[in-house]
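User: Structure tokens for both sequences below?

Assistant:
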Amino acid sequence: MKVDFPSPSGTSRRDVLLGAMATTVAAGLPKAAPAQAAQKQDFPSTSSSKGSKTVSTITTKDGTEIFFKDWGPKDAQSIVFHHGWPLSGDDWDTQMLYFLDKGYRVIAHDRRGHGRSAQVSHGHDMDHYAADAAAVVEHLDLRNTVHVGHSTGGGEATRYVARHGQPQGRVAKLVLIGAVPPIMVKTPANPEGLPIEVFDGLRNSLAGNRAQFYLDFASGPFYGFNRPGAKPISGVIENWWRQAMIGSAKAQYDGIKAFSETDFTDDLKSITVPTLVMHGDDDQIVPIADSALLSAKILKSATLKVYEKFPHGMCTTHANTVNPDLLVFIRS
């Protein structure tokens, strides 16, 4: 394993991150400050296109319609982006436009129950998430593809690569950004994980007042806007809220169990493609000590990059750093 930018060691960092998550649930999140700156399958599909920019849907075997965006030359190197909870493929717009400009083919789908995909009642678990991603990839017949997953999307991408993409020979590389593997919740096998009460609190907040909860979540720890001296950006907060509120409350509620309780250890052990693990050491949502630092040790071919003081939503707040680093890895 190659490691760049080693993170601070010791329990104090984990204690700070664990405290931030627990405080979020127990006491509620701070309100936003005024903005300081602006298996191979055939699937029926529909699509509409304008130039090289295509918007499509597929219907999986269990009848779930999955929305995806597919932009760029069809013969170019493809990059598939897997979004975080409770968002949509739109959360990758900055990365998709950046790599589109570099000549890549970029694809992002909305997870079932999220964004513009069908608000089905069933299948909100990592096995279905990975199978849905596989359905999109197989429909487009993508090969030699780089998969990039953020947060919950990192779990989805990990399971997809391990169980679908790598066995089919479709994957070139994997990138995990602020990702949930190997497992978030505290268990006998994972004693340093977050207590189940943290995730119960998220569920209670979602069920009690989803709209306010999501506004507070984006205004606070997701982007680090609750840190001293941070300058909340109203457009970023409102765009996060917009994406979250489009999705199904049922899917997002069930998704908390999927991202917190799924154990990806065996998936990580089976992955052999080069993998870049990127994480901010001030991630208040997915503590780095219990995620990236462990995943990088389990993976067979991992490069770990730790970003000092970067938040969970660093693909948005620090895109000018994240995007070039992604490009270097993809080109290498």
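Moving on to the next sequence.
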Amino acid sequence: MTVLVLGCGYIGIELGRQLVDPAGAHDFDSSEVVGVRRSAEGIEQIEAAGFTAVQADLTNPDALERIPDAETLVFAASSGGRGADAAREIYVDAQKQVLEQFASRENSPDRYVYTSSTGVYGDHDGGWVDEETPIDPTTEKTKVLAEAERVAIEDAQHHGIDGTVARFSGLYGPGRYRLHRYIEGPVTEGYLNMVHQADAAGSVAFLLAADLARGETVLVTDDEPVSKWEFADWLAAECGVESPPKRTKEQRLDDDGLSEAARRRILTSKRCDNAKLRALGYEFSYPTFREGYRERIESYRNQGE
């Protein structure tokens, strides 16, 4: 089976690395996994991870024609944290072009995975959410994310392709620990739902290898949502520093310079349940933040940074 990872960045590169790892659980070689990235730097990163790279812009229909056939597509592109218009260009428009282009080929794919975000849930006042919880996007950007999930399932089905939505909670791991933000503060109240890079990619690899969740959404998050204040205090204690200052939501929202994205994160409190992913049989490398942050904490304590 050939796997084509479109928008092969933070998660895509780790996914490809896991798929071709000779010591791993998956039986792929480097010629069966292809990563697509727009930048030359991204191409170098893919090649360094040990699998095939193709340089192409997913928003350019002519560029899509140069990408090789594959039985399985993984759409893991990012809009780079920009606003709703940029998100629509990537997550909706480019995704539709990808599905149409590959479905029209003689050797069209039969499996498709789209990586989404738990931002589609909206606010649940700290309550639990899972795959059965109705989504309630509250901003223009999260409305785009919700539309993109519909494209991944319904449009893919229209083209004869089985789509899966892997709905990620907050990603962390190498390069994205943000340790200083939490140990220095101030830290605003609310819940954190997290999944380590290795498990975000690992869950997609697992669903592909086991041929699970066709036509379904799977919430990809670790075992333990945690209060931001509790998490910050735990990190501070593990790092051997004083607990950081805290702020309530009301105090943080009083900041006139708050961005829309930051305001949305503050106002959308929820706890994400991974029971479905666990029931499917996925075993986490980092079941909670305690395991996931261990190496970063040791680095901080050893080097003071």
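User: Anything stand out in the second?

Assistant: The mean pLDDT is 94.
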